[in-house]
Design a protein that fits this description.
The structure holds two protein chains of two kinds. Chain A is built from four helices and five strands. By secondary structure, chain A is of the alpha+beta class. In chain A, the strands form two sheets. In chain A, strands 2-5 form a two-stranded antiparallel ribbon. A two-stranded antiparallel ribbon of chain A has the order 3-4. The mean pLDDT of chain A is about 90. In chain B, about 25% of the residues lie in helices and about 30% in strands. Chain B is built from ten helices and 24 strands. The longest helix of chain B is centred in the last third of the chain and has 20 residues. The radius of gyration of chain B is 22 Å and the shape is globular. The N terminus of chain B is likely disordered. The chains are: A alpha+beta, B alpha/beta. At the A-B interface, α1, β1, α2, α3 and α4 of A face β1, α4, β14, β18 and β21 of B.
Chain lengths: ~140, ~400
């Protein structure tokens, strides 16, 4: 049913309602989709956001709350493309919830120890590979 | 790596993505002399891997009691986190069905869940307002439970170990060890490397673990599952598509007495997703936001959108005077039925849980499919071992078992 929403929330809502009402008999077939990495992105201005440190947190505080205690001098486990253009570096920086990627001037900076293994990077950007055991978050009640 | 086919102001992420490092993930090599011999190995100690290990241990024990002759089997679970559950994240509201089947001797009240799910409320949000809409039938949570997947997995781990399963935590699986197109085990990731990748203090080399059957229960976007499918050219009618969820756990004065889901703000209209607020206890809530990774605006930031959501009049009052306890993020395979691989088995290999894509988006659930698919994997392996055939054909019954079950039907 997720595929119906490829045509947007409202059109998708109508299709999904028909799928539900007919238990898949109508519009329940396959809808062609692109892999997420093949969907083009429009370069847009970011939302303004300044964390207040109480109700809202920035990405570094957030990673601390994930219990991530990966050692700082671990080799990077992320395979980054060559010569990442600035707009693409920004895409990675906005996409990554853990602040692994940052743009510094025209360069992409990779803070690999921040990674919490959510795998979004492997879907849209640099490849994720395993790193030493015990790295990453230590969720307790998530 | 600038590509000529991009229009100005537009990015296609795949143009800048390095290829999957197949030569690192698929290694044709004999296991070393100190390889740890297992009969069956589950890669990933989440609900799928642990359910599979528990079910298989039970089937083997029952067979041996009945004089079936399989003998003692070594069943292993490899987990990359330092201890079980630390890399698991989910909403979560859980359908208890497969847990009842896996733990028939445990009364439902003693299953590792928090509270029965209260009534559902679904809202369409605008920046300041909310409109309650009827709950879609698939989203009703009557008879389900609010739970923490970390707690579920720790509890299942205790039961697995009590059943004689070898649980190895702190061991990521780096590569599939193969012989021709047979999967014969895995090689783990070394630890104690310095920044340049050279052995430093506390260096521990890779360990080889062999198995007659390796089950990839790696979770979402599993690196070895990706590699196996690329290497064996296993395709699917559709590519798998994903969403990213960011979640927070809050200690609060008073949790809501409803299961809350929202659509609309703060997401732009061209992004698919929504939020949740679940009461885990009178004073503890889980809240989060999920967005499809096909979003169109390059500056969309799911973490920032969740921070904005917390200021909405529907959510903010619950957080007043509360404290952020934990934060996390995880992707979710959302493609459904048409993104399931054409085969989820191979020579000496099965794929289970999120790694295979067993998530149902309309009901927003995956944990019970993970548990059920782990059990199906165990039953398939048990039959294969009885028949002494763990080849592709010996394990091929798994796909039909999955597709004919409620997993295939729901998806």
């Amino acid at each position: 049913m997720r595929l119906a929403f490829k045509s947007g929330l409202y059109g998708g809502g109508v299709k999904a309602a028909i799928m539900s009402a007919t238990k898949g008999a109508l519009m329940g077939g396959r809808i062609d989709v692109l892999a997420d990495a093949d969907e083009p992105r429009e370069v847009t201005a970011p939302a303004e956001f300044t964390p207040d440190g109480e109700r809202t947190v920035g990405k570094l505080d957030a990673v601390f709350r994930s219990g991530n205690a990966t050692r700082d001098d671990i080799p990077s486990h992320l395979i980054v493309g060559e010569e990442v253009p600035p707009d693409v570096a920004d895409l990675y920086a906005y996409m990554c919830p853990a602040g692994v990627y940052e743009r510094d001037g025209d360069k992409l900076v990779v803070n690999a120890p921040n990674c919490i293994d959510c795998k979004a990077t492997d879907i849209l950007g640099p490849r994720w590979t395993p790193r030493e055991g015990g790295s990453g978050p230590s969720y307790k009640r998530m | 790596m600038t590509k000529g086919n991009e229009t100005p102001g537009s990015i296609k992420p795949s143009d800048h993505q390095p290829p999957l490092p197949l030569d690192r993930f698929i290694v044709e090599d004999s296991p070393d002399d100190e390889a740890v011999p297992m009969d069956v190995l589950f890669v990933g100690g989440g609900p799928a891997g642990l359910a599979g290990a528990i079910e298989l241990a039970r089937l083997v024990a029952r067979d041996n009691e009945g004089g079936g002759g399989l003998g003692e089997l070594e069943i292993g679970v490899l987990e990359k986190a330092g201890s079980l559950g630390e890399h698991c994240m989910s909403g979560a509201i859980v359908n208890p069905g497969p847990f009842r089947e896996l733990f028939p001797d445990v009364p439902e009240s003693e299953l590792p869940f928090r509270v029965p799910a209260p009534k559902d409320r679904v809202y369409m949000l605008s920046q300041r307002g909310k409109t309650r809409i009827p709950t879609p039938p698939s989203m009703h949570n009557k008879a389900n439970y609010v739970a923490s997947i970390c707690e579920i997995v720790r509890w299942m781990g205790d039961r697995a170990e009590a059943a004689g399963v070898n649980v190895f935590t702190g061991f990521p699986a780096e590569s599939l060890l193969v012989d021709g197109d047979n999967v014969i085990g895995v090689r783990t990731t070394p630890s104690g490397l310095d920044r340049q990748g050279q052995p430093g203090s506390g260096y521990m080399p890779a360990t080889d673990v062999t198995a007659r059957v390796t089950v990839l229960s790696e979770g979402t976007r599993g690196s070895l599952s990706q590699a196996y499918m690329a290497w064996q050219r296993v395709e699917a009618p559709n590519p798998q598509i994903y969403a990213l969820g960011v979640k927070e756990l809050w200690q609060v004065k008073q949790a809501p007495n409803h299961v809350i889901h929202t659509m609309g703000w703060p997401l732009p209209k061209d992004a698919f997703g929504g939020s949740w607020v679940y009461p885990m206890a009178d004073d503890l809530i889980s809240l989060g936001l999920v967005v499809g990774l096909d979003y169109r605006q390059h500056s969309l930031d799911v973490h920032v959108l969740l921070q904005k959501l917390k200021g909405h009049p529907l959510v903010a009052p619950y957080l007043e005077g509360g404290e952020l306890m934990e934060w996390g993020a995880k992707t979710i395979p959302e493609g459904g039925y048409y993104s399931l691989p054409d085969r989820m088995y191979g020579n000496g290999l099965l794929i289970a849980g999120d790694a295979a894509g067993f998530i149902d988006v309309p009901s927003l659930k995956g944990i019970h499919y993970a548990v059920q698919s782990g059990m199906f994997a165990a039953r398939t392996i048990f039959e294969a071992l009885k028949n002494d055939d763990t080849s592709l054909s010996g394990l091929s019954g798994y796909d039909a078992m999955v597709r004919d079950s409620f997993i295939g039907k729901d998806l």
